[in-house]
Amino acid sequence: MSSQDIPEEKLPAEPGAAHGAVKVADEDNPFADPGLPPHEHRIQDIDERAAKRSERTVALLFTVSMLATLGFIASYVWIPNDKSIYIWPLGHISAMNFALGLTLGVALFCIGAGAVHWARTLMSDAELADERHPIEASPEVRAKVHADFKQGAKESAIGRRPLIRNTLLGALTLVPFSGLFLLRDLGPLPHEKLRHTMWAKGKRLVNMNTNQPLRPEDISTGSLTFAKPDGLEEEGNEEYQTEIAKAALMIVRLQPDNIKDKRELEWSHQGIVAYSKICTHVGCPISLYEQQTHHVLCPCHQSTFDLSDGARVIFGPAGHALPQLRIGVDSEGYLQALGDFEEPVGPAFWERG
């Protein structure tokens, strides 16, 4: 029931007084206001030595939080990820996971416990009663809130107790490093692996289907052939999928007069051009070739590249042209690479310059 629904004679006589806020119950107000119990001062309010002990306790909790955060980082760096330990009653668990969970839990708990102990023992505990007010705050209320905030900051004693302030700032500063340290590497760092493939000077081009080295006469005009480096075999090679994902090659024979890009012509052999098969958008294998236009199409998101013009992007979301492999022939007449790709294959990555 709202105040508008109460008969006027039943409303409190004093403006702003709550209904039933009387010392003694009567017929009109059957519920008496019990009031607030007498305020009891904390020992920290009357004994500065007790306040100092609480201050040191809070600082100790914040310091333990900092040490636990450093322990989290140390555990992540130095504990092998395949090491396990026996913890009763959990059994055998990962030593790294146990250490990370324990240290991060201690770091967060100590910040929370320190803040609670600080509030309960050193901050002001005065009890304030305030009348109900409209939802929309008046200018006077807003000014009062600002004043109360400043008063609360003053009563928190954060300015007078630098030990608490500094250890709190230290704990709050170090805790985020736990997450940043995890994001440092979501797996082994690639280092230079994304910049290099198995292609090198003298590596023969091997047909992926027949597993035989290719000669120029094996490539007919208008055809699309897929190749891999000589020596890259799938059987018994744990790195095969990683290496083929970078070294997969597509070979097309064009009429030299149809090649518009000067460097592409120089890096070709008798009109045979070799480009990375990996799309520069999200790394899908390119497999569709339009003989009349010399365009290759990625089936995933329809990125289209012009093989007669440096494999530049003419349509779709791909960000840059396909890398070209410089090729020639060896002394036995087989097609060979004259070096590695001069730029990383596939999509761009954040370390790429």
From TrEMBL:
Its main location: membrane. It holds the Pfam family QcrA_N. InterPro entries: QcrA_N, Rieske_2Fe-2S, Rieske_2Fe-2S_sf, Rieske_Fe-S_prot. Residues 1-38 are annotated as: Disordered. It comes from the Bacteria. It is found in: Cell membrane. It is a multi-pass membrane protein. PROSITE patterns: RIESKE (PS51296). The chain crosses the membrane at residues 58-79, 99-119, 163-183. Residues 241-336 form the Rieske domain. Keywords: 2Fe-2S, Cell membrane, Disulfide bond, Electron transport, Iron, Iron-sulfur, Membrane, Metal-binding, Oxidoreductase, Respiratory chain, Transmembrane, Transmembrane helix, Transport. PANTHER family: CYTOCHROME B-C1 COMPLEX SUBUNIT RIESKE, MITOCHONDRIAL. Belongs to the Rieske iron-sulfur protein family. Iron-sulfur subunit of the cytochrome bc1 complex, an essential component of the respiratory electron transport chain required for ATP synthesis. The bc1 complex catalyzes the oxidation of menaquinol and the reduction of cytochrome c in the respiratory chain. The bc1 complex operates through a Q-cycle mechanism that couples electron transfer to generation of the proton gradient that drives ATP synthesis. This is Cytochrome bc1 complex Rieske iron-sulfur subunit. It comes from Streptomyces thermoviolaceus subsp. thermoviolaceus.
